[in-house]
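Support case: user asked for a sample of complex input and structure output to validate their parser. Sending the pair below.
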Amino acid sequence: MISFTVDGETFTGNEGDTIASALYANGKRSWRLGKAGDYRGLFCGIGICYDCLVKVDGMSWSRACQVEIHPGMCVETNLQGEGHL
Amino acid sequence: MTYSSDVLIVGAGPGGLSAALAAANCGLKVTIVDAYPEPGGQYYHQPPSRYRNEATNRQKVGRILWRRAVNAGVEIRSSTIVWNLDNKKNASIHGSGGTETIHGEIVILATGAYERTVAFPGWTLPGVITAGAAQTLLYRRVKPGKRVLLAGTGPLQLVTAANLLDAHMKVICVLEAARLYPSIDGGIALVGQWGRIREGSRSIAQLFWHRVPYRVGWGILRAHGREQVEGATIAQLNSEWQPIPGSEQEVSCDTICTGYGFIPFNALAKMAGAKFVWDTALGGEVPVRDEYFRTSIPGIYAIGDSAGIGGYRMALYEGAIAGASAAVDLGHRVPLAEKIFQSTSRKLRNEQRFQKYYSRLFTPKDGIFELSHPDTIVCRCEGITRDMIEKAVCCSGAKTLQELKAVTRCGMGECQGRVCGPTISRMVSKLTGMSMDSIGSFASRLPIFPLPAGSFQITQD
């Protein structure tokens, strides 16, 4: 199992999981606010729509559906009102 | 410094791998640049290494094609995106090693397609995903949800439903918007399509076995929920795919898989300045091509779904022809190229015949683009609603997608309008009566994918 954090909360996933698949496996499906303040998460799954954006180890505009998790990965969302990712 | 190859191929799906194999067998130096960690594209998507010995037949076939290409000397650069292509065939790429330029004497674009989604109230809620997204979760043995509704059109919906059932998930029902009645031309089109018939019957048998309703001529009207999907309203559709009043039903579900066919991913051909034409049956805007799949820009080919939706078989055959044609262009091993043309052209014609029938059946009708309410978000990135689009058309006089973008910011987000563009152009066409060609599309902008700031610099040669 691989441990990683999202906004400080610890999650675990399998090797080969993307951030999105690991969060889905943990029952977490909303992890972003759109510009209108509405909840967003996984959508296209293939890296086209940019709806699942998170910040990964400080890197903005990372697609949760494309980035594979690694031990100690630090994922940040904009749910705490950080605004645009 | 610029790296150079005889043939540069963008995309390592069925089309790209097939083109690479043909070109390499004809003696050319071939480089493929692919966005994903492993070759295969969407159709031959490889499982994570921990599930490799559980690979499906399709994944195994893709792996064999990949191996054959590598053994033929093809260089594959994975996890690398092409973010610009100019009309001199210079591609700007970004991968783990940073940014560089690759020049191809011949460039073959095999960038595939993405699923068409339409704006209905609630379609931005987490839990509404494309059928393809559900597949990417299943590859990793992750369940998309507990109670799944599928709503859309085409075989991918059926196959995804069968895959969800294989993974022991509860599928509420499958809604197919198209009216699939047995017909004579349908029977004729299916002659010789045993692979398709087998896969289709297997999926339908799977639904039947699990008593999952397959509702033909039905669609989704809206998704309910606050933080995520909690239910949906569905309805029967008429022949124009408009909901029939009074037929609405509420269903309880936590996941909705949706997809109304595919849209060609054509951004690089646009960046290079290739000539385009609107063809609804091929998925929308497609590059103009000759019989060897050359675009209007000398030395740049476009094949497979990226140049018009046709499926993986079409991509394989177009790839073989384009790869061999590249060899002829560069004066290599012409006899082998002739052989490839001969052995492929009949199979290709067969596919084209089937494609005509397929697109007549599954090409979305107008009704599906009219499901949004005034306050429904149409452009997901920028949060632009239908109301704002209509006001821009009616009050500000915006007529083309480029004008709409300037007035409302729709299509200005990270996806560059790939998701909303096709829906918005249908809305504008409905409002103004203008043709899709004259409404146009959002221009592709450099870089075609967002890049980390500072990771690229533009040099003037």
